[in-house]
Amino acid sequence: MSEPIIIGIDHGYSNIKTAHTVFPAGVVEYANEPYSMENVLVYQGKYYVIGSGRQFLHRDKTLTDHYYLMTLASIARELEVRHAPTESTVVLAAGLPLTEYGRDREKFTKYLMGDGAPVDFRYAGRAYHITITAVKLFPQGYSAILTQPELLEEPSVIVADIGGWTVDLMRVDNRLPDAATCRSLEFGMLRCLDEIAEQVRRVLGISLSNVQIESALRSDVSNLDSKAKKIIHDTAERYVYELLSAIRQSGLDYGAMPTVFLGGGASLLKRHVPQRVALCRPFLLDDLSLNAKGYERMCGRISGA
Q1: Which of 10, 86, 87, 279 is in Cβ range 3.0-4.6 Å of 17 for a Cys bridge?
Q2: d(CA 263, CA 11)
């Protein structure tokens, strides 16, 4: 039997990320076969469109089967990118915020592992026969930092992982996370996007989609009216300063040490984070897949791969 393939997955509230792919966190079940099999998972006789719809914000991701279904889709997408066999053994490398790690590690491991039997499903028209041999969980955010040699030389670093629902904070001292500094703030990008949409409605009387808002935050190439763009960027800038204030109120002094912003929010807010805050410049890691890549690296070190 060939060696298991390590696949890192970052199970976000807004997006699911692997080392090479990103798709929106959403699952819509269809009673009958959809008109197109693109992004369609067929599992246990049911059809699921993956990456469609908006997830309910459950603190416990094991309450429904949605994250398991998106895990199967993630495995399929990553195997396709790697040109790996559709019949493979897999080690899943995933993560949890340090604030939830001790509490939820066992439960989330069992959820992703299932009963350990091979799983048969189809994704995007291709048949898969997958055996998950192990699930390894690692601290979210910290795993991403381990991919950045420059940051590992700093004696102390603040890590702010800006997700869809939460911003997970920690301080890393001499390459090790300080568990006492870990915080999870309900201050993620969904809050920013909702506030932008509300401000645009109030001022201009129109309703923008999150996709339009995200496109405008990444660049100014969209055909949106200049007034709408100004509201979007002004509101995003205000969100960033409120976030910095919340970080300081959590007991982490971003003016005294480098602050690393990562996650989906970092890519959207890149132009709004100040170039320098007090003594230090912030670092923006806008690769959405950094956590997934970090999980794979840590898992590889453990297994000797």
Answers
A1: 10
A2: 12
- Residue 178 burial (C-beta neighbours within 10 Å; 0-12, 13-18, 19+): middle
Read off the tokens for 98.
Answer: 């340090």
Digit-coded pLDDT (tens) for 102-147: 889 999 999 999 988 999 999 999 999 999 999 999 999 888 888 8
**Alpha helix (H) residue ranges in 53-119:** 66-81, 98-113
Cα dist from 55 to 44, 172, 291, whole Å: 21, 31, 20
Upper half-sphere CA count for residue 95 (Cβ side, 13 Å): 30
DSSP state at residue 209: -
CB atoms within 10 A of CB 43: 18
Q: How far apart are CA 224 and CA 142, in angstroms?
A: 37
Residue 54 pLDDT class (50, 70, 90 cuts): low
271: nearest Cα among 260, 286, 259: 286
Spatial distance between the Cα atoms of 304 and 298, rounded to a whole number of angstroms:
10
Residue 272, amino acid? H
Q: What percent of the chain has pLDDT over 70?
A: 94
**What backbone phi and psi angles, to 5 degrees, belong to 24?**
-60, 145
* pTM, to two decimals: 0.90
